[in-house]
Amino acid sequence: MVKIIEKHVHLEFRLGHHLHCLVAQIPNRLKRKDHLFALTDPDDAWRKVKSILDLVVAAEGNLKRLHFLMFPESSIPLDRFDEMIEIIEKGFQPNTVTMFGLEQIRLEEYRRMLIRFHSDNAEAISCVEYDLDSGDIQGMPVNWCAIVVKEATGKVRVFLEAKTHPFRGEEFLDKDHDLYRGRHFYLFRGEPACFNFMTLICLDYLYRDLYSSNIRQIIEHADRLYFTMRQSLDALFVIQCNPKPEHHSYREVLTGFYGEYLEDTPGVRDTATIFGNCSDESEIEGVACETCYGVSFVAISGRHKLHKFEEREFSSDDFGGAPICRLRFGTGTRLYYFNLPLHHEIDPRTSRVPLKVHSVLHWQDEKWVRLGDAQEPQREFP
């Protein structure tokens, strides 16, 4: 069973004001290298990532109010990890959370990274040590992510998670080359802002079975939080590199998450679920797919008001009849900047629209350009 570890982080979000999220839907090109998935051209990947970090550091316009930044699964070159942490530490505003997936590493390297940031990952280290004690598994691949929190004081904290649920390309007949299955998730308790959130990696969102489901555990933990402290899970971020972002399995889990009527689940009733995928220019060695990536989206409970509409770069729907309201983006290489709903704006009695898109940027001439500021070739929304 996956262990949910609560972490208290000092985040002073302004009461009564929107929280803002930037999803970087950028290309991800991966190849196999010694049973690991690595970036085909790490320098090119880093150039795009660095350009986004530069935008956040510049903090022009509404970006000075950025709170959450999401990059796709396996999108950050391993040898740029320290540089990325340094940019966040020196250039980002306080009260920001950056979530990103890195190139795969071996379990022994992952353990060393946990030890390096041991003050924030002590419980995770004990989980890995327990697994390492079970056999010779140091060489197992690890698909991992980092959640970097720059607190209100300016202190930077680095939390690491390992993916718990492999896709078929990460499993082998040779058990020693199977993906290592992570043993923990972090639930961050933002204080004094009283904002609670989690980060998962792609298939970690899906059910394994009815009794050991990751989502089932998250719901039960959030419910205990509600019944003991009257707090809830406010946001669930899912970073992806997924060629099937709208697979029916996701709709089924969202249906169970927001539409379970056999019991009350107040801990997740008002949770915003944000899926951040890579763009349709992505390629994974061994995965046959054409223009099937992208479609990052935000889901909230269907009890709230989000009327159906369709624009060039985004639309709203209920994901094929699920009990949700969904803000659905396109497939291209884009930066999506939007607000997360406030509690009083997701009251079903209100007439306010709970989700709003502030800006959409696309990659043109080696820089990010806001749509509407420059001419772009027309493309059909999927």
Overall description:
With about 375 residues, this protein is an alpha/beta fold. It has one domain: Carbon-nitrogen hydrolase (Nitrilase/N-carbamoyl-D-aminoacid amidohydrolase), CATH 3.60.110. Helices cover about 20% and strands about 30% of the residues. It is built from six helices and 21 strands. The strands form four sheets. It has an eight-stranded mixed sheet. An eight-stranded mixed sheet has the order 10-9-6-5-2-19-20-21.
How is this structure best summarized?
With 382 residues, this protein is α/β, with parallel strands linked by helices.
Descriptive terms for the model:
about 375 residues; Nitrilase/N-carbamoyl-D-aminoacid amidohydrolase; 8-stranded mixed β-sheet; about 30% strand
Q: What overall form do the CA principal axes indicate?
A: globular
**Structural class of the secondary elements?**
alpha/beta
Strand arrangement within the widest β-sheet reads 1-11-12-13-14-16-18-17
Radius of gyration: 20 Å
**CATH superfamily (homologous) name:** Carbon-nitrogen hydrolase
The third-level CATH topology is: Nitrilase/N-carbamoyl-D-aminoacid amidohydrolase
How far apart are the termini?
A: 38 Å
